[in-house]
Amino acid sequence: MIHIPRLCVIGVGLIGGSLALALRRAGIVDEIVGCGRSEANLRRALELGVVDRYQTDAATAVAGADVVVLGVPLGNVRAVLMTIRDALDPGTIVTDVGSAKWCVIEDVEAVFDRMPAGFVPGHPVAGTEKSGVEAASADLFQNRRTILTPLAQTDPQAVRTVTALWEFAGAEVIAMSAEHHDRMLAATSHLPHLLAFGLVDTLARWDGDEDLFQYAAGGFRDFTRIASSDPIMWRDICLGNRKALLDALQHYREELGVLTELVRQLDAQGLERVFRNAKDVRDRYRSSLER
Ligand code: NAP
Hints:
By secondary structure, this protein is α/β, with parallel strands linked by helices. The chain folds into two domains: 4-176, NAD(P)-binding Rossmann-like Domain (Rossmann fold, 3-Layer(aba) Sandwich); 180-289, 6-phosphogluconate dehydrogenase C-terminal like domain (6-phosphogluconate dehydrogenase C-terminal fold, Orthogonal Bundle), CATH 1.10.3660. Helices cover 51% and strands 13% of the residues. The protein has helices spanning 14-26, 39-47, 58-62, 77-84, 102-112, 156-168, 178-204, 218-224, 231-240, 242-264, 268-290; strands at 4-10, 29-35, 53-55, 67-70, 93-96, 119-120, 122-125, 145-148, 172-175. It has a six-stranded parallel β-sheet. The longest helix has 27 residues, at 178-204. It is elongated. It starts with a strand and ends with a helix.
C-alpha cells in the first residue's frame, strides 16, 4: 500500500483529471492540488471533486508535493519544467503522461542538465478523442496499460511508487526503453492518428462542388473517429516523436505504393492476399481484446 500525502497534477485535463479521480477513489492520496493556466477549467475541476484546491502558478503548486504528475501537452512540458525546477522539494517524485517519451527525456535533461533520479517518464496507453476535465473519468485506466520508461539512473524506489500509483488507478504497468516505446507507439497510435486527420482533410478539400460527407457510411465514421482528437495535442505528439513517426510513414508509403500497383494492374489475387492477411491479423487482435 502506498500513501501520498500531497499529489500535484499540472494539467488537469482528460488524463491528469482521470488519474486524480482514480487515485482519490483508491484512497491513497490525502490532498490533490491542481494546476493549469485557465482558472475556469480549475474551478470546474474543483466543482467535480477532481482536485481539493488549485493554483495557476506551477512553482507554487508543487511546493510540499510528494508526487507531481505532468499532464500537459508535450509542447508545454519544457516550459512547465523550467517553472517548477527550483521549487521542487528534494525528495519529490515527478512523472509525466506524455504520449512520446524520448522528447520528454530530452526536455528534462535540458532543464535539469541531467535526468534527476526522481523523474519517472510514463505513458498511460488509454484515452479518448475527448479533452478537458469534463471528460475525466476514474475508470479511464481500468484494465489498460501504462508504460514506464525509466533510465539507468532513475531511482528504483521512485519507479516502485509510480508503478503502485498506476496500479491503484487500475492499470497494468510495464517498463521498456523510451526508444522501444516511441517505435511501438508511432506504429500503432501516432501513424493511425496522422492518417485519420490526413484522410478527413483530403476529403474536405476534394475537388468538385459536392459535399462528400453526405455519402459517408459506418466505415468512414469508424476509421475517422480519432480525427476528432485535439489538434494541438496531436501536433505536439507528431513533432515530439517525429523520428519514429517518419519511419512508420515510410513503411506505410511503401504499402500504399504496392496497393496502388495492385489496383492499377487489376491484380485481384494480390489485392485479396493483402486484405486477407490484414483481416486475419485484425480478427486475432479483436479476439485477444475480448479474452
Ligand atoms: P487535455 O485534456 O487537453 O489536458 C491538458 C491540460 O493541460 C489542460 O487542462 C490544460 O489546461 C493544461 N495545460 C496546458 N498547458 C499548460 C501549462 N503550460 N501549464 C499548466 N497547465 C497546462 O489533454 P490530455 O488529453 O489530458 O493530454 C495530456 C497529455 O496526456 C498529453 O501529453 C498527451 O500526450 C498525453 N496522453 C493523452 C492521451 C489521450 O488520449 N488524450 C492518452 C495518453 C496520454 P489550461 O489550458 O487551462 O492550462
